[in-house]
Every structure is written in structure tokens, then in C-alpha cells.
Amino acid sequence: MNKETSQNIDKIHKQQRIDLAVAFRWTARLGMQEAIANHFSLAVSDDGSQFLMNPYGRHFSKMRASDLILIDANDPATAERDDIDPTAWGIHGAMHRKNPPGALHYACPFKVCDRAGQP
Q: How does pLDDT run across 86-108, given as a tens digit for each residue?
């Protein structure tokens, strides 16, 4: 990825990227991460079909706003990327399409939660 492309990606949903990266780092600080296979996502489109999600394999404590991937739940090719967990793409995409924009979804130990930890 060249510098210009990276700068353009950083500008898309900039504040949401920053906020979500902070959520990852804070979760790690509290010791609530589950190795490298867990994920958070944040809907950024009105219909919930576009959302930000962390790449597979990046530890929560190392997450940066620029690491977050803009996902399109209506584009199955997105699920085939090496840096995206396809089950996360399916589950998070379906959940975001059924919830209002800005919903934060995360998987936590022993159950799936959304927003403020509501199962």
C-alpha cells in the first residue's frame, strides 16, 4: 500500500476508527482480550452494511486506527480476505444490518454481547 492510499484510508470514518482502536486497547489493558482471534466491529453506514473490524491476528493492545478494515457485508468477496475471519464477517455483518448505525458489537468470554454488554 502506498503512502497516498494509506492516508486516504485513515481519513475514512476517522473518528470512528480512533474510538474503536481505543476500545481495543482499553479492553487489552483490562485483560479482557482473548489472544488474537477475537474481534470488535462498529457499523458506520446508515443501513449497517458497512462496518469497521479489526484484522485477524492483531493483538488488541497493538491496534491502531489505521489497522481497522472497512467491511462491506453485501460483498462476499470481503470474507475471502486473509486478514478477515469469515465467520466474523458473516455474524457481524448480519448483526449490523439488523441494528442501527453506530452499534458496537463484540464477542466476549462465554457469550456474545452488543452495545453495553447486553447479551
A: 888 888 888 888 875 656 666 66
User: 43 in a domain, yes or no?
Assistant: yes
**31 domain residue, yes or no:** yes
Q: Please give the residue range of the domain that contains residue 70.
A: 3-114
- pTM of the prediction? 0.76
List of E strands, the chain: 40-43, 50-53, 69-72, 104-108, 111-114
pLDDT band at 52 (very low <50, low <70, confident <90, very high): very high
| Helix or strand run (H / E) with residue 87 | helix 86-97
The Cα–Cα gap between 113 and 8 comes to: 32
Domain count for the chain:
1
CA distance 115 to 104: 5
The C-alpha cell at 70 is 472497512
DSSP state of 115: T
Residue 81 lies in a domain: yes
CB 39 within 8 A of CB 90: no
